[in-house]
Write a structure and sequence with these properties.
By secondary structure, this protein is α/β, with parallel strands linked by helices. The protein is built from 9 helices and 7 strands; from the N terminus they run H-E-H-H-E-E-E-H-H-E-H-E-H-H-E-H. Helices cover about 50% and strands about 10% of the residues. The strands form 3 sheets. A 3-stranded antiparallel β-sheet has the order 2-3-4. A two-stranded parallel ribbon has the order 1-5. The chain has a two-stranded parallel ribbon with strand order 6-7. Helix 2 packs across helix 5. It is globular, with a radius of gyration of 17 Å. The chain starts with a helix and ends with a helix.
Length: about 210
């Protein structure tokens, strides 16, 4: 949805979630996180985090490609291993501080569409337009499973994905720094029962109303 809006408006799209996923992959690869226990060696990650260089390049259909230290990691960061580990990493204050600083620098000139779980409350509390997008956990799990199947994952089950969705929601909404919550002035868009065209139409209408105001 965010990619489509950016494309229509001619803005830059930034996927902040990919940044936290890339840091998680960095920690896993360096042995600074246990994928089974979800335990993080915080001091090691704090020390080596500056070594994780994250960048984006344009991809197909407006989707940016995520790079970690010069390697295309777009596919790997979307897998279940990273998905199940990203919340503990994203909850670390020093990780969020660094990522937020990078995100704010990206948005200094305006003309961007940015999505993430704390954009309207922490990263850009004064954004021109804030939209809190939600859907039922079951609907999001089914969509996520469909995405995984499209990437060649034939082993993950609906139950596993649903559990991951619920766990991430709980952890992200209960973390101390930058918790997942709706900003007081954000518009609510529940797309549980909307088609892609319908949600895009609503979002674009809200954006145009702001631009023309």
């Amino acid at each position: 949805m965010a990619r489509h809006l950016a494309k229509v408006l001619g803005y830059v799209y930034i996927d902040t979630g990919a940044m936290y996923r890339a840091v998680t992959l960095f920690a896993l690869r360096a042995g600074m996180m246990n994928a089974d226990t979800k335990e993080v060696d915080t001091e090691a990650l704090r020390q080596h985090l500056p070594e994780a260089e994250i960048s984006f390049t344009p991809g197909s259909e407006g989707r940016p490609v995520t790079w970690l230290n010069g390697e295309n990691v777009e596919s790997e960061i979307r897998g279940m291993v990273v998905s199940s580990c990203v919340s503990p990493v994203a909850a670390l204050p020093f990780v969020r501080e660094r990522m937020v600083a990078i995100q704010q620098a990206m948005g200094e000139e305006g003309g961007i569409v940015m999505d993430g779980r704390d954009i309207g409350t922490v990263v850009f509390p004064d954004a021109d337009l804030k939209v809190f997008v939600t859907a039922s956990a079951e609907v999001r799990a089914q969509r996520r499973l469909f995405e995984l199947r499209g990437k060649g994952d034939e082993t993950s089950t609906f139950e596993e994905v649903l559990q991951n969705v619920k766990e991430r929601d709980y952890m992200d909404s209960h973390r101390e720094v930058g918790p997942l919550k709706q900003a007081g002035d954000a518009l609510l868009l529940d797309n549980s029962n909307l088609t892609i065209a319908q949600q895009n139409e609503q979002l674009l209408a809200w954006a145009k109303a702001k631009i023309e105001a």
